[in-house]
Write a structure and sequence with these properties.
Aspartate Aminotransferase, domain 1; alpha/beta; about 35% helix; Aspartate Aminotransferase, domain 2; binds pyridoxal-5'-phosphate; 7-stranded mixed β-sheet; single chain; globular; 5-stranded mixed β-sheet
Length: about 425
C-alpha cells in the first residue's frame, strides 16, 4: 500500500496558492500504480518493533495514517510550521484547547461565542478552577481592559519576561502552564457576526503573556489565517465549511508551537474521543472543493445580504460584506472575503419562527457551512445568550441558484 507522505512538512509546496493547495495536498506519493487519493486506513495498530517512540505510527488512538493527509493539509492552509491535529468534533477540539488554561488563570471569551464553546468553558473553568470573563470581542478597549484586570489578578503566574507564553516562546511542555490565561477569539462571531480586531487583540494579549486561540470556523483558512495575525492556536469545527456537505462531525486544532501541539496531542490521546478514519477521509474529500464552494456561497451571501438590508420586514442585517456593517472595515483589512453567514433580525420571535417555517428551498436546521442553505432562529436554543435578539435568524448560505434562494426567502418574508 502506498502511504500518504508523512506529517513532517506542512509546507510541501509553499509556492502554490490556497485554492491549489486544497486540491493538491495530502495525495499519496507519485509512483506508478499509486492511488490518486489516500486509502482509508482502518488499522488500529501498526508494526513497531523496539522503541515505540521511533515508530511514526504505533496505535491509532495516538496517530494514524488515516489522519495524516488531512492534518498536513490544515497545517499548510493555516500557515503553520506543524501539521494540525484532528479531533472527534469541533467541540472536542475547543474543550482540549480550553483545558490548557491553568488553575488560577483566566479565560477571556466573547459573550457571543458559539454557545457550545461558552458552555464547555463554564464547565472546565469550574472543574479546573480558573476564572471565566466574557467580553464584547468587537470592543478592543474593553478586551484590553479585561486582559489588564486578569493579568493583575494572576500576576504571580506571569513569566518574568512578560510575554513568554506566546507561540514563539512557548516551546516547552510548560507552554500553557506559565501563561496567566488565554484570550479566546471568534471572528466573525456566531451568530452575531461581530468582527474582532484580531491583530490588535493578539498583540495586546501577547504583551501580557496570554495565549491566544481563534475559532476560525466561519472564515476557514481561505479567508483568514489567524496564526499570521499573531494567534497561538487555531480551532475549527471541520463539520462546517472544511468538510462542507453536512455529513461528518469533526474538529481540528492547528499551532506552530511544538510545546502546545504536544500538550494538545496528549489531551487528545488521553481523553480518547478520537476521529474515525472514514470521517477524516470524507473531510479531505470535502476540502478539495472548499475554494469553489466558498466562492459561490460568498457571492450568494453578498447579494442576499444586500437584498435583506433593503427589505421592509427586516429590522437589521449583519454581514461583514455590507459596506455599512460595523465590522466591514476590520473584515476587509484582515480577511480575504466576508464568508457566507448572514444574520438578520425580524420584528419578533414569532415572525422569525414563521419565516423559518415558511421557506421551501432553505432547510430549517441548525449548523452551517454545507452546500445546502440553512435557516434558523437562534433563540430557539435555550442555551443561546439572552443578548442575542429573540427575532435573530442565522442564514448559512449555500451554493444553490441565487434567484431560487432569494425568491424562496422573499416569499417567506412576505
Ligand atoms: N465553532 C463554531 C463557530 C461552531 O459554529 C460550532 C458548531 O456549530 C462549533 C465550533 C462546534 O463544532 P462541532 O459541532 O463540530 O462540535
Amino acid at each position: 500500500m502506498t502511504q500518504p507522505e508523512p506529517a513532517s512538512s506542512p509546507a510541501r509546496h509553499p509556492e502554490f496558492a490556497p485554492d491549489t493547495i486544497v486540491v493538491e495536498t495530502g495525495r499519496p506519493q507519485r509512483v506508478d500504480g499509486a492511488s490518486v487519493n489516500p486509502p482509508i486506513d482502518l488499522s488500529s495498530t501498526f508494526v513497531s518493533a523496539g522503541d515505540i517512540s521511533n515508530s511514526p505510527y504505533a496505535y491509532a488512538r495516538f496517530d494514524t495514517p488515516a489522519w495524516t493527509p488531512f492534518e498536513v493539509a490544515l497545517g499548510q492552509l493555516e500557515h503553520a510550521s506543524l501539521p494540525g491535529l484532528v479531533f472527534g468534533s469541533g467541540l472536542a477540539a475547543i474543550s482540549a484547547v480550553i483545558s490548557l488554561v491553568p488553575a488560577g488563570g483566566t479565560l477571556i471569551i466573547p459573550t457571543h461565542s458559539y454557545q457550545g464553546a461558552l458552555a464547555s468553558a463554564e464547565q472546565i473553568a469550574g472543574r479546573q478552577n480558573f476564572d471565566l470573563v466574557t467580553v464584547d470581542i468587537a470592543d478592543t478597549e474593553a478586551v484590553i481592559a479585561a486582559l489588564d484586570e486578569a493579568g493583575q489578578s494572576t500576576s504571580g503566574r506571569v513569566p518574568a519576561e512578560g510575554a513568554a507564553a506566546s507561540a514563539g516562546a512557548a516551546e516547552g511542555r510548560t507552554a500553557s502552564a506559565t501563561a496567566p490565561g488565554m484570550l479566546w477569539i471568534e471572528s466573525p462571531t456566531n451568530p452575531m457576526l461581530e468582527v474582532a480586531d484580531v491583530p490588535a487583540l493578539t498583540a495586546a494579549a501577547k504583551d501580557r503573556g496570554f495565549l491566544v486561540s481563534v475559532d476560525n470556523t466561519f472564515a476557514t483558512p481561505l479567508l483568514q489565517t489567524p496564526l499570521d495575525l499573531g494567534a497561538d492556536i487555531v480551532v475549527h469545527s471541520v463539520t462546517k465549511y472544511l468538510a462542507g456537505h453536512s455529513d461528518v462531525v469533526l474538529g481540528a486544532v492547528v499551532t506552530s508551537s511544538t510545546g502546545l501541539r504536544e500538550e494538545l496531542h496528549t489531551e487528545r490521546s488521553m481523553r480518547g474521543g478520537i476521529a474515525g478514519p472514514f470521517e477524516v477521509w470524507l473531510a479531505l474529500r470535502g476540502l478539495r472543493t472548499l475554494a469553489v464552494r466558498l466562492d459561490r456561497a460568498q457571492a450568494n451571501a453578498q447579494a442576499i445580504a444586500e437584498r435583506l438590508a433593503a427589505h421592509p420586514a427586516v429590522v437589521e442585517t449583519r454581514y461583514p460584506g455590507l459596506p455599512n456593517d460595523p465590522g466591514h472595515a476590520r473584515a476587509a483589512a484582515q480577511m480575504n472575503g466576508f464568508g457566507a453567514i448572514i444574520s438578520f433580525t425580524a420584528e419578533s420571535a414569532d415572525k422569525a419562527t414563521a419565516i423559518a417555517e415558511a421557506v421551501r428551498l432553505w432547510t430549517p436546521a441548525t449548523s452551517l457551512g454545507g452546500v445546502e442553505s440553512l435557516i434558523e432562529r437562534r433563540r430557539r436554543h435555550p442555551s443561546e445568550p439572552v443578548t442575542v435578539p429573540e427575532g435573530l435568524i442565522r442564514l448559512s448560505v449555500g451554493i444553490e441558484n441565487l434567484d431560487d434562494l432569494w425568491a424562496d426567502l422573499e416569499a417567506a418574508l412576505a
